[in-house]
What we know:
The complex is a heterodimer. Chain A is mainly α. Chain A is built from 17 helices and six strands. In chain A, β5 and β6 (336-338) form a beta hairpin. The longest helix of chain A is centred in the C-terminal third of the chain and has 34 residues, at 416-449. The radius of gyration of chain A is 26 Å and the shape is globular. The longest helix of chain B is centred in the first third of the chain and has 30 residues, at 6-35. Chain B has helices at 6-35, 64-74, 76-79, 97-106, 119-133, 143-158, 181-190, 205-219, 234-256, 282-304, 308-332, 382-394, 396-399, 402-418, and strands spanning 165-166, 172-173, 339-342, 444-445, 462-467, 478-482, 500-504, 516-518, 523-525, 532-534, 540-543, 555-557, 563-565. In chain B, α2 packs across α5, α6 packs across α8 and α7 (181-190) runs antiparallel to α8. The radius of gyration of chain B is 37 Å and the shape is flat. At the A-B interface, α1, β1, α6, α8 and α9 of A face α1, α6, β1, β2 and α8 of B. β4 of chain A pairs antiparallel with β3 (339-342) of chain B, so a sheet runs across the interface.
Amino acid sequence: MPDRKLQRSLTHGFRLPRDRYRRVAGWLDNTTGGGGLIRRELRHIFPDDWSFFFGEIALYCFVVLIATGVYMCLFFKASAARTVYLGSYRPLHGVGMSEAYASVLRLSFDVRAGLVIRQVHHWAALIFAAALALHLFRMFFTGAYRRPRRLNWVIGLSLLTLVFINGVFGYSLPDDLLSGTGLRIAYSITQSMPLIGPNLASLLFGGNFPAAGLIPRIYAIHILLVPGAIAGLLGAHMGLLWIQRHTQYRGVGRSDRVIVGTPMVPAYALRTTGFLLVLTGMLTALGGFFQINPVWLYGPYQPWDSTSFAQPDWYTGWLEGAVRMTPAWDIHIGGFLLPGLFWPAAVLPGVIAGFLFLWPWLDAVVLRDNDLHNVLQTPRDRPGRTAIGVGLLTFLIMLLLAGGDDVFAATFHWNLPTLLHVMQGLTIGLPFVVGLLAYAIFRHRHLAAAGEVAL
Amino acid sequence: MARLPRFARLAALPVVAAVALAIVLPGVVKAATSSATPTSATSPAGGLAASPGAAATPSATPTPSSGAAIYAANCSGCHGDHGQGLIGPSQQADAFPALVAGMVERGGISMPAFRQFSPAQVAAVSTFVATQIADPVARTATIAEGGRLFRLYCSGCHSSTGRGGALSQGRNAPSLADYPAAEALAAMILGRGNMPNFAGTTFNVRQQASVALYVQLLQAPPSPGGWGLGYIGPVTEGLACFAALGLLVLLTVWLAWGKGQVRPAAAAPADASPAAVVAPGWPAAIGLLVAIAGAAGFVAFFIAGNNAQKLGGTMALSFLGLGFALAYWGRDLTSDEVEVGHYPLPPEAAAESVTTLGPTAAAPSAGTVAATTGLAPAPADVVSAELGDELARSTTVLTRRRFLTALLVGAATVVGLSQLALAASLGPKSRGLFSTAWRPGVRLVTTDGVPISHTALQGGGVIVAFPEGHLEAADSQVALLRLSDVAPQPGRASWSPESFFAYSRVCTHAGCAVAQYEDESQVLVCPCHQSTFDLRHGARPISGPAARALPQLPLAVDADGYLIAQGDFNAPIGPGFWNLYA
Lengths: 455, 582
């Protein structure tokens, strides 16, 4: 029966009666006491720029990781106890392996959608780290870390460190040949520390490698301790962002006092929710069509197996490259040994992390700028900062590429020892060259914009 | 019953459609897939349940007699009437028809391809060789054993997925997909260049066949997860990750295009009522319909089976459709509202920023180039002052009693630190880094527990050996080699009876298994970071990040002719640590 009102609704849109909204609002205000606050924050202003979305990519990847992770932890068995596989993947039939590895095989082959969810989880972790790197460098090059956002910068770097740790532990849970080799190397790195190394390694890893308690320990850290810490810090991170408001680029009507942007409701909320779902869709497409971490092909981890093309996931690749390129620099002090592994694997990441953590204060001291800033700069406003950032980025990219040197040598039929020496030279020299080049370019543009030099 | 509100009635139609699809589609999908290959919907590992040879069966059933005729006419000239092997490898080592068929069709390094044969003829001669000529022992080979041995001996050079590896001096171990699997068999038996041979004591006939079967599997590795990206591993996965990130960044550019900016023409912020929006609504509608179809399809495929591409694809459609619709709605169907507000700053913050631009300014990014002077924080402002005074007032009860407060701080610190003692339960104090399971007189055995005779490795090659009774001792693993033209190191002449050398296989750099044994170069290379150990000079490192030689195990031959250890290694095995020389 055609209903005239229904017909008109379809063609002309409709609204719920006003008193229905007011009833909901009344309930909200009576329960939380925050009616006024909610009303103001519905119009919370978000400066709008595509380069502000990198943090959101990371945040939404985290959401997907939690969802897929919860699903998987119902099937994973965190035990290194030996078992003989008798499941549906025939090429491993009768092979001895840990319960953990067997449970991942079961999840991949026998649980419906298990493999898809596992692959979505792993792709989400890779993109999470990549988005965080983009986010970090966007902050760096635009000076978003300046007062009053220095605390948030520190919180953000702490989040990056936690994500790194969780990623490494996550891909080590299946106890396959590739990740088990990585854990062995991590053990050796811990062992290489002066004075405390061997005892610290035994303490953290539960004994001599491979200890039976290692997988359960990594599991507890990966699903509970680190995600909890990330959730807490993330709350603080976004809370500060909310209270301080997001920074903005220079523009019409904008200043350190006046913020111009899109109100949260309805446009921004719609777009960001849509973005969350599109990102999820993209991750599920990756998880369905692009195989990642096929642990059944790598085989279970045995300390007497190893494989060529042994790389960790990309966000650990820069450490791998540093370890490959550092020569055999064992140092003998009295009757004691400081192994060469200590420098690229323990000292270098510490130096880089320390430099990044301290950067806002270094920046403020060198530029003598302790003011509050809410307007972002562009790379050419601070050619020196841009040059340093570009140099650091070049250095990290060279380390990352060096981590895959045997893959490139085998693929392109290059001489691996020669390639290694070339990479060593480039890693030391190229950051300076590129940094100086960046300085020259951006200083020129800086002066051109000031009208002092013709472009 | 009260009438449903108008909104619910409107939403009912797509929900009903989705439910109907979800009920109908599984039946349709199941009917469609059951008429196609029966194994694909239920066993995601594909046709692995069937024997590898069955895949190549042509329509006409070959008979051994016709296979015998083909063999006699084409093969016996090189391989002998009974497969003894005149030029090529002995057919006694071949196992299954598919192995043979691969070699016949593709040819190998020393054997031509026989392209004049029809598929039926290839199948006939392959079956004949596999069933009439091949060693019956070889036919007991299994893929699983082949995989285990592959990962112990082969993956160090060829990678665990058989896609190759880089060796010392600019050489490469090739990808195993470049050759038929039977070529791997030939290489195993004869050795090739830097590849040692694995015949005789390292692999018996059954083990050779097993490894060949596994190599055949790696020609087309089981990939239920989708495109294998070359089976290289995290390097290609990382590249794909950045490609995906690039796509996401393009999406963000689209999403935020032209948003949140005050138009020069508009002198005041946009008013509250939504202006007329000219963008059409049908793109959002299409997105939503795609989402519904995807969701229904997902449920259908979930009920019908476990295909990752179908499940992932339909999930993707449903999320992408829904997400695109919302994003488009927010971007194009909502009027461009711009809100102007204030940052939460202390009221007396000094010095206006020089970057303030009036609404009539033209280009937003031109003009000021100096760093913004920002707003100096004003610590003396009213709120901070009041807060500061309140903090001072409320803590006087503590600060008045200085000694007690100091004692409080000390006690709190000590109590907190004392809880760190719990961490000591995490693990045992380090021990056992200085000794392994090797003792004087303990026999060397293979991974299957078989003792190794002094007649082993006469043709060269390597055996991974363990102490008898300690097959799971990771720290005790050795690479046993027979190097006739290598002189023992000074003071170690008695350690190498009959040119046998045994070196620890735990890399002294970071602990990976030193699995790359390069025959011609006479080096052991670790595949993790390419530490290279010179076998001509006591396995000392000549390139790469390792600084210590591989510890050597002193060997002897016992009364029964088996290899035994004279004692433990000459140095602690594995990576270095602080008190290594203690």
